[in-house]
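Incident log, structure service

09:12 report received: a user says their structure output differs between two submissions of the same chain.
09:20 pulled the input from the user's history:
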Amino acid sequence: MKNLFVIVLLVLIATGQNFAKETRIVVRAKARDAKFIGSSLGGAYIIIRDKLNNKILSEGKTEGTTGDTRLIMMEPRERGKRIADEATAKYEATLDLQEPTFVRIEVQSPLNNRTAQAHVSTELWLIPGKHILGDGIILEIPGFIVDILAPRTHQYISLKSLANQSLTFEANIVMMCGCLIDSDGLWDANAMEVVGLLSRNGEPLKELPLICKAPNLFGATAAIDTPGKYELVVYAYDELTGNTGVDKVNFVILD
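09:34 re-ran on a clean worker, output below:
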């Protein structure tokens, strides 16, 4: 009787294993109104979870290029036409599924810039043995990456050190894929609103329009003639796409 039980158990295990099938799925992260997020920006982090128990089935970073600009940004879209080539950044997971599984796919990007990091997700059924390849699942990441370069965080600046009591403000701003923003470029700085909001001792002081001085570099100068604790908030806004981005620093002006 014991041997019969062992045989039945082995048959059940073997039968369960037969249902398991290798299932491959490609996941990509794409910046809104721009290209794919790949190795040049440190990748986007992908997590695939079983929605039933929140178990992580696979996780890792997208790797590859930002893709073909012509395919992604210039050619008319046609149903079924791919916008990602073989070099375009992706994360490919190979799962061993025994039954249809409802999953949640999460992306965190840009991975190496927490201030601009967005979390985006989608949910879908995965069917054992039914691969999702080609362009795969594409999750859109909205926004801009904004990094204030000057003044530096918690920088102490003497009024005497300022030429004509004028302070320079600079910020580096890129698309969420790292693509260049420039005057009259494909991602046109002239179509974007970049403004610095300057406060002193907690009170609003002035708004500073920042102008594109070089690819990704925006700047302005303003008269500063009073010591105090200052805060600078720089925002970027594109009305056409709805992309936004923000960074802030605090600095001190001394007598």
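09:41 both user submissions now match this output. Likely a transient worker issue. Closing.
09:42 reviewer note: The domain at 2-141 is CATH 2.60.40.10 (Immunoglobulin-like). Confidence is low (pLDDT under 50) at residues 4-17.
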